[in-house]
Specification:
Length: 416
């Protein structure tokens, strides 16, 4: 599979982009906080970048109608140039926080279609028998490397300064733009059937999304969806104050790495045989309660001391372990309970709602961080997650769910 030249270029580009994204995120959030000393601005910065995720859902129908090779080259080039504006303004002594707040969402907006665009190319360049392996490698490159790259980015920034991050990130975009010049002609092909239905594509996209949302009225799926939305809202609120809560850029990068490590550990634990035998109701209710308790536990420690920082990072990781488990089980439950032809619409609806409300959590977190003690803000969001556990405990159908093995067996029996 790695002998496929196009696939190798795309995969290499994804690794390079992920490193650039890690160092850019840490540097920019830290820069905004250093320039303002206010969590209100870091919350606003996170809001402006995360709100752009909505465009991934809205603009995804155009992926089949554009020359993807040209888009990849130009998008990387534009982002590389935009990022150089920040250190250039710094050299000129003209850099203001509003410059960063304008450039951040523009870069994020351009980047929204890059990853799904790369995934859309895989069927064009890979044999069907190798698609699962190809998607797995891309998933590892996209999410599995976050823990390593975030930690490495913190070390680089601490050693060479915040502005060095923009030069490095800009270089990663320029390197990718050059790499993508060598993609084959197959990558440039536009789906003619899609381009001939321009007038119907967007409307049909929203129609599918609306149909997907209707599927969540189920007595089990609706409480799950509502809980996931609140969890994402709370997590985003905590993320918005982490630059202020962390001792320096290195600790901030370790907090970001902790989330990736926690999700990976949670995914591993969720696949253990004895865990699959536990009643799903208990996994959901007690799992999210433990996540809330772990994050509330962070509020008991002053992160400005090294020993306490280690404890808070471990607690932050523990919270993500339980959330990582719930993510795996939630996706599996959706796939089992909803007809195959409707799964994409249901998942699209869930992702769309989660993405839409998480930025509001960032705004609230930034606002609360400005007027209240940071540990109290973390405690507040931890309590919010605990309330999800209480809400799920009151849902009879969810509480009575059998184990994952039992649910799978039941669905197989119904299919027969």
């Amino acid at each position: 599979m790695l002998k496929n030249y196009d696939f190798l270029l795309l995969l290499l580009g994804r690794f390079i982009t992920n490193f650039g994204d890690s160092i850019y995120t840490i540097a920019t959030m830290s820069l905004v906080y250093n320039m303002t000393g206010s969590t209100l601005y870091t919350g606003l910065a996170l809001f402006l970048t995360s709100i752009m995720g909505i465009f991934q859902l809205i603009l995804s129908p155009i992926l089949d109608r554009i020359n993807m090779k040209r888009f990849l080259i130009l998008s990387q080039l534009c982002q590389g140039i935009l990022l150089l504006i920040i250190p250039l303004l710094k050299i000129m002594g003209a850099l203001e926080v509003y410059h960063v707040l304008i450039i951040m969402p523009i870069v994020s907006f351009i980047n929204q279609l890059v990853y799904p665009g790369q995934l859309s190319l895989l069927p064009k360049i890979m044999d069907e028998s190798k698609l699962i392996a190809a998607n797995s490698l891309f998933s590892i490159a996209y999410q599995g490397t976050d823990a390593i790259f975030n930690a490495l980015s913190g070390v680089v920034i601490l050693a060479y300064g915040l502005m060095s991050a923009y030069y490095i990130d800009s270089a990663t975009f320029f390197i990718n733009s050059f790499l993508f010049l060598f993609l084959s002609r197959a990558v440039s092909e536009v789906n003619s059937s899609s381009s001939s239905k321009n007038e119907n594509l967007i409307s049909s996209h929203f129609s599918r999304l609306k149909s997907g949302l209707k599927l969540w009225k189920n007595e089990i799926l609706f409480p799950l969806l509502l809980g996931v939305i609140i969890i994402n809202f709370a997590a985003s609120g905590i993320y918005s104050i982490l630059p202020a809560y962390s001792e320096n850029e290195l600790y901030y990068s370790l907090f970001l790495s902790a989330s990736g490590i926690g999700i990976l550990l949670g995914s591993f634990i969720a696949n253990l045989g004895y865990v699959k035998k536990i009643k799903l109701g208990k996994v959901y209710i007690y799992g999210i309660a433990l996540a809330g308790l772990a994050w509330m536990g962070m509020s008991l420690f002053d992160s400005m001391h090294a020993s306490n920082s280690i404890i808070t990072i471990l607690l932050f990781t523990a919270g993500w372990v339980f959330i990582g488990m719930l993510n795996i089980y939630s996706q599996t439950i959706v796939q089992l309970m909803i007809p195959k032809e409707s799964v994409a619409g249901a998942m699209g609806g869930m992702i769309g709602l989660s993405v839409a409300l998480a930025p509001l959590g960032a705004l609230l977190g930034g606002f609360l961080g400005k007027y209240f003690i940071l540990t109290d803000v973390i405690k507040f969001f931890g309590v919010l997650i605990m309330l999800v556990s209480c809400y799920w405990m009151l849902q009879g159908a969810l509480k009575k769910m059998g184990s994952l093995n039992e649910v799978q067996a039941e669905r197989i029996s119904e299919a027969r």
